[in-house]
Amino acid sequence: PPVAIEHYRDLEIVFAISGGWKPDRRQEVGFKLVIRNTSDKTIELKWPSAKTHDFVVRNAKRKIIWRWSKDKSFAQAFKTKTLKSGSKMVIKSIWDQKTNSGKTTPRGKYTIWAEFNPMSYSKKLGPLGIRLVK
């Protein structure tokens, strides 16, 4: 599957897309973000709200057509995740190949970004490109 890997401070961040580079139009596209503590110490990740990440799909004209977090509500309270040395955090999501307004996406090229945004470790990953086929 298409994969992007970043080493950022004490973290290894892996972003993968299931369904390959050319997913069938009828299949859902899975996104997976794996954050691993590569240091020998415990790391505490903190967010100003319950929103820990986001996934964004852009069309060939770079227009955002789908955003995972759109129309979601997040608790406005600090969130903390502790990662011991070598441990990981896994985030998964599914895109049904529709826009945020519910329209089916046409065939074409799309880029997908993952955003992992704890305070002091904020990182964008990608883009990973896919071409939707029938």
Automatic annotation (TrEMBL):
Residues 26-117 form the Intracellular proteinase inhibitor BsuPI domain. Transmembrane segments: none annotated. InterPro entries: Intracell_prot_inh_BsuPI, IPI. Pfam families: BsuPI. This is Intracellular proteinase inhibitor BsuPI domain-containing protein. It comes from marine sediment metagenome. The lineage of its organism: unclassified sequences, metagenomes, ecological metagenomes.
